[in-house]
Design a protein that fits this description.
44% helix; 259 residues; seven-stranded parallel beta sheet; Rossmann fold; 7 strands
Length: 259
């Protein structure tokens, strides 16, 4: 066991923002426990990041299986020691009007984006509290604070996890553990492309759409996963040691700075 080696857990690590964060942490010399539901995508990640060697630990695991996660967490701690970082990037979106959402789709989105994410975080947070060190960053969304059409129960699930993380950050402060949220706007990921395919064009996202009460993106481009990644890395680092319970928006001005 390398005593100075930081170990990070990244959920949703097989695509989009989560994958960018996992790759960036590897480049920073961290050990990364990458978690994702798809075994095939996990195998692709392992192949792409093969130069990382044993710094990358790939786990094909659905975070909704919280019992298995808890057992694996125990194994990782026994094997690697302290978990220094947790990044919650797992999330799903079921497009469509909230009025038309089925009970099954609502429960699926809330289960992944809120309940399972919270349970995973609590398991890691208890370990960090014992160690009296650690940093947690959760990927939220501007939809948590700004009403959106066409994305079903996704905004509600993100609002729930955002506030839960603030409350958890308050509880963890006495243990020296920090808990922050990064809330992206429209980002060039698989999820964004799914939304565009059902609810409008890329131009509509950039220019705004009065029918959806959208003002567009003043910076005139979608964010790239790497744009979100840089802020996450800062919040994990000691450079942000006095920042906790914050929800930082990265949206190119889409919400007009309204908070």
């Amino acid at each position: 066991m390398q005593e100075n080696l930081k170990t990070a857990i990244v959920t949703g690590a097989t695509q989009g923002i989560g994958r960018a964060i996992a790759s960036a942490l590897l480049r920073r010399g961290c050990r990364v426990i990458a978690i994702g539901r798809s075994a095939d995508k996990m195998a692709t990640l392992a192949q792409v990041e093969s130069s990382a060697g044993d710094l990358l630990v790939c786990e094909a695991l659905d975070i909704a299986d919280t019992d298995t996660f808890a057992k694996r967490l125990h194994d990782w701690i026994a094997r690697f020691g302290r978990i220094s970082y947790l990044v919650n990037a797992a999330g799903i979106l079921v497009p469509g009007r909230l009025l038309d959402a089925s009970s099954a789709s609502i429960r699926s989105v809330v289960e992944t984006n809120f309940l399972s994410t919270l349970e995973v975080t609590l398991a890691v947070a208890r370990h960090m509290a014992t160690e009296r060190a650690g940093s947690i960053v959760t990927i939220g969304s501007i939809a948590a604070t700004t009403a959106r059409m066409g994305v079903g129960s996704y905004p509600a699930s993100k609002a729930a996890i955002t506030h839960a993380m603030k409350c958890l950050g308050l509880e963890l402060a006495e243990y020296g553990v920090r808990c922050n949220i990064v809330s992206p706007g429209s980002t060039n990921t698989e999820m964004q492309r799914l939304f565009q395919s059902t609810a409008g064009s890329r131009d509509g996202v950039l220019n705004g759409d009065p029918k959806q009460f959208r003002v567009g993106i003043p910076l005139r481009r979608l964010a790239e996963p790497e744009d979100i990644c840089e802020l996450v890395l800062f919040l994990l680092s000691d450079g942000s040691r006095h920042i906790t319970m914050e929800n930082i928006i990265v949206d190119g001005g889409a919400t007009l700075g309204a908070r």
